[in-house]
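re: ur question from yesterday

yeah so i grabbed the chain u mentioned. its 132 aa long if i counted rite. heres the sequnce exactly as i have it in my notes:
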Amino acid sequence: MIVICGPDGAGKTSVAAVLAERLGESAPVRRFHHRLRALPARSASMVATETPQDQQPYGWLVSCVKLLFLYVDWAVGWAFQTRSFVRSGGWVIVERGWWDLLVDPRRYRLRPLPRLVTLLGGLGPGRGFTVV
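ran it thru and got these structure tokens back, copy pasting raw so excuse formatting
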């Protein structure tokens, strides 16, 4: 599993496309953007995605609830969609992923909660991964 994090314009999509092409020559590849989407998502028409940082962040309580929702989505997605695929030799490439919540919390309209993100990230899927 490869997770690519970084600010807007850093080239995440370009790197993911090249990796998917190269890795796909020898093994199956699945790509995801931010979430594994095991749980339902809001309709795309409800959210402006070009400049989410311009929107007001949620309050502390809503930020914590949203963070917990994203954690459950990540854990359930890993357990039921991704783990067996990876164990059978497939590659999973995630643009942004869980650790992007540390890199750019405003993109998700979250108040910065680095301790909670780090704590949950250490408990869930992806623990032991190196964040660079």
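noticed a couple things. The beta strands are 2-4, 29-33, 91-95. also The radius of gyration is 15 Å.
anyway ttyl
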